[in-house]
Amino acid sequence: MDDQPATVPSATPPATGRTILIIEDERFIGELYARALTRGGYVVTLITDGAEALQAAQANTFDIIILDLMIPNLTGIEILRVLRDPARVPPLKSKIIVATNLEQREDVRADIEKQADGYLVKAELTPHELVEFIDKVK
Fold it and tell me: How far is CA 87 from CA 11, 58, 117, 128, in A?
């Protein structure tokens, strides 16, 4: 009889070492995303205020930024424009994923998609699917 202890797989996946800033004014949605991403091995910061979020994003310490468009004090579009300003030194290293339920005209959405590294419609996305999407962002 083998007296070796059974190996039980860990319920927590190994940390990815990647950091994520979630800029989301709906605290419930932000916390759902944060919990799912944390379980996925990410280090997550959630900020609900646009001005505060821009300041955090400009520190250039996050690997990925998940950006809602409708947030108080600065819109997501304003934040995106500042972060993607070609004159920015040093350039932002973060990947920016826009996550919104805001209906956009095609030309506006195309402009946003050119500046962002991804565009997600929150109503069509579960927290688990968000983690799967973020896992593929390089």
Answer: 44, 13, 19, 36
Tell me the whole-structure pTM to 2 decimals. Answer: 0.85
pLDDT exceeds cutoff 80 at 30:
yes
Q: What is the pLDDT of residues 63-100, one digit of tens each?
A: 999 999 999 999 999 999 999 998 988 889 999 999 99
- The length of the chain in residues reads 138
Residue linked to tokens 């468009």:
69
Do the domain assignments include residue 103?
Answer: yes
d(CA 62, CA 94) in angstroms, rounded, equals: 6
Residue where the block lists tokens 């927590």: 12
Domain count across the chain = 1
The span from the CA of 106 to the CA of 2, in Å, is 64
| Contact (Cβ atoms closer than 8 angstroms) between residue 22 and residue 66 | yes
Q: What CA dihedral angle connects 84, 55, 19 and 115, to 10 degrees?
A: -20
Give every CB contact of residue 53 below 8 A, 6+ residues apart in sequence.
21, 23, 47, 71, 74, 79
The CATH code of the domain that includes 99 is 3.40.50.2300
